Amino acid sequence: MSVFELSGRKALVTGGAQGLGEGMAKALAGAGASVVITDLQKDAGQAVAAALPGDGHGFVALDVTDEANWESAVADACAQLGGLDILVNNAGVEITSLITEVEVDDIRTMLEVNILGTTLGLKHGLRAMRPGGPGGQGGAIINVASVAATIAFPGISVYSATKSAVDRLTRVAAMESGKLGYGVRVNCIYPGLVPTAMGAGLANDVAALGLFPSAEAAVGAVVELTPSGRLGTVEDMAVAVVFLASDAARFVTGIGLPVDGGMGM
Length: 265
Description:
This protein is of the alpha/beta class. Helices cover 45% and strands 14% of the residues.
């Protein structure tokens, strides 16, 4: 059996109705895991879950900023799957703005989704996977940070700050899990720019702010900063998540894995 094989594993992916989360859910299912997708988009999330390869998949509605929602979503996922040993904290939001023009409500939205949501995911994921939890067999948590945590790209100051926080949360959670014998590895990935709806929106937004002459010029600037000479793909990010969830990464915890073509080096 390949060390990347995930047969028998039980995974929950937040923000799985589209974009990176959808790709990650498909990759985990393709490697053999049973997957529950969570999202606020019920119809889209259910459609993605129904289309995943293999059997035993499902959908649970989840607002990642609501703790009671997290408690019920993890309980529902554990009931559907018969436990939990992989959690992908992917749900996130990016609102582009110059620092001089940033709106307080937009700051709060990014703080709540990207930091509060990830923290609550860690809390309830660790509780489910640690000894005595409904999973109780340990496992792996993968948080989705961003290359924005490692570079200074204009127009995304608050988003960058929140993704830096995701990195720090990851490392402290990994240390606590190890010290307390939870048996849960905690890592994060730093995706580069991917032409999903969010990525395309960012390019349009920074151009609209006057930071680049056009969306195409903004994308070109990203490619120019990337030694690999291209944007990332959803699959690039998804296979990194499969790696960190698998036994191939059995001695890997507390890291931020760049999946950015070298952009953030």
